[in-house]
Amino acid sequence: MEKISLYDLLSILLPGAIFTLFIEFLFFQFNWHIDNYEVNEYFKLTIFLSSSIFFGSIINIITRALLDKYYSKTWLYEPIPDIYKKLYSDENLPIVKFLTKKLNEIEDNNFNNKIESLWDEIYFELESNNKIKVAKDFQSFYFFFRNFFTLGLLLLFVLIVLTIVWYNTKHVFAYLLGFDVIMMILSIISAKWNRKQMVKRLFWTYYSLHKNEN
Fold first, then answer.
1. Lowest mean pLDDT, pick from 20-24, 37-41, 70-74, 173-177
2. For 134, which of 40, 90, 167, 204 is 20 to 30 Å away at the CA?
């Protein structure tokens, strides 16, 4: 059996676990929780892991469905060509000259298409040669923060309703609503930073491996 990767943990299991804990918290607020029933700890752990994987997978699916149309407008999904232009605007840098040469070898008149094509080539080459670990670690954190934003978006609607309905008796929902909004904003900032670092590490790793080639 393969070990759980950082990608699995951060993009699927952890967001799902947070959502499962939130549901458990809601049940507790309304005086219902699994401890009321005589079940052993293994059963509780099985339920927790199963629900974490299930909800985490659903959150990941929702995130992917929202990427191109909506998340690109919140910086959660900045296109690779845009990041490339910001990182490598100085044409005098050795890495820029190297990458420009590689781009010129691609037969396509659209610069963005060239970047995407080169990105795919570099990604799969480094992955097949096991030289992509650091870049993929940043990618895993990026996946977590964008899924965490989706989680915050789902909780946002629930907390708004609960705050309106139960504000006079349960102020905790209002506090959680404010905390959720702050976490969503921080998720955008963190996701943007990790995606930029992922792109930077991948291009630099490729450059380091091939810069001495004729």
1. 37-41
2. 90
pLDDT digits (tens, 9 = 90+) for 163-206: 888 766 667 888 888 999 999 999 999 999 999 999 999 999 99
In degrees and rounded to multiples of 5, residue 149 shows phi and psi of -65, -45
- Domain contains 1: no
Whole-Å CA distances, 18 to 21, 98, 105, 156? 5, 44, 46, 14
pTM: 0.84
Residue 96 domain flag: yes
205 or 44: which leads in pLDDT:
205
Strand spans (E) along the chain:
none
One-letter amino acid at 11 equals: S
The answer to the question of residue 25 being in a domain is yes
Burial class of residue 103 (count of CB atoms within 10 Å of its CB; 0-12, 13-18, 19+): middle
Task: Work out the burial of residue 178: count CB atoms within 10 Å of its CB; fewer than 13 is exposed, 13-18 middle, 19 or more buried.
Answer: exposed
Residue 101 buriedness (CB in 10 A; 0-12 / 13-18 / 19+):
exposed
Is the pLDDT at 37 greater than 60? The verdict is: no
Tokens of 157: 């609607």
How many domains is the chain partitioned into structurally?
A: 1
| CA–CA separation, 59 and 188 (whole Å) | 16
Which amino acid type is present at position 203?
F
